[in-house]
């Protein structure tokens, strides 16, 4: 599939990419190359092959789903300019 300069201009506009008029032929050629590669990929027979989420079969490490308070309240509040009763103190903004 071949992309002409008008189509490249429209794609750049839709993608909100500023492309100079001098660069449009190169962009059209790159887009045509991408579409040609995609057509080659469509020719590959993938019947019976399951989709993959990654290249190596790996299970993600998971932590236990336990509710905690983080156990570092004192360290967090040490950074606060004003802390009272275990919470950040902020100025009143609503009367």
Automatic annotation (TrEMBL):
<dbReference type="Pfam" id="PF02686">
    <property type="entry name" value="GatC"/>
</dbReference>
<protein>
    <recommendedName>
        <fullName>Aspartyl/glutamyl-tRNA(Asn/Gln) amidotransferase subunit C</fullName>
        <ecNumber>6.3.5.-</ecNumber>
    </recommendedName>
</protein>
<dbReference type="GO" id="GO:0006412">
    <property type="term" value="P:translation"/>
</dbReference>
<dbReference type="GO" id="GO:0050567">
    <property type="term" value="F:glutaminyl-tRNA synthase (glutamine-hydrolyzing) activity"/>
</dbReference>
<dbReference type="GO" id="GO:0070681">
    <property type="term" value="P:glutaminyl-tRNAGln biosynthesis via transamidation"/>
</dbReference>
<keyword id="KW-0067">ATP-binding</keyword>
<keyword id="KW-0436">Ligase</keyword>
<comment type="subunit">
    <text>Heterotrimer of A, B and C subunits.</text>
</comment>
<dbReference type="InterPro" id="IPR036113">
    <property type="entry name" value="Asp/Glu-ADT_sf_sub_c"/>
</dbReference>
<comment type="similarity">
    <text>Belongs to the GatC family.</text>
</comment>
<keyword id="KW-0547">Nucleotide-binding</keyword>
<keyword id="KW-0648">Protein biosynthesis</keyword>
<dbReference type="GO" id="GO:0006450">
    <property type="term" value="P:regulation of translational fidelity"/>
</dbReference>
<comment type="function">
    <text>Allows the formation of correctly charged Asn-tRNA(Asn) or Gln-tRNA(Gln) through the transamidation of misacylated Asp-tRNA(Asn) or Glu-tRNA(Gln) in organisms which lack either or both of asparaginyl-tRNA or glutaminyl-tRNA synthetases. The reaction takes place in the presence of glutamine and ATP through an activated phospho-Asp-tRNA(Asn) or phospho-Glu-tRNA(Gln).</text>
</comment>
<dbReference type="GO" id="GO:0005524">
    <property type="term" value="F:ATP binding"/>
</dbReference>
<dbReference type="InterPro" id="IPR003837">
    <property type="entry name" value="GatC"/>
</dbReference>
<dbReference type="GO" id="GO:0016740">
    <property type="term" value="F:transferase activity"/>
</dbReference>
<keyword id="KW-0808">Transferase</keyword>
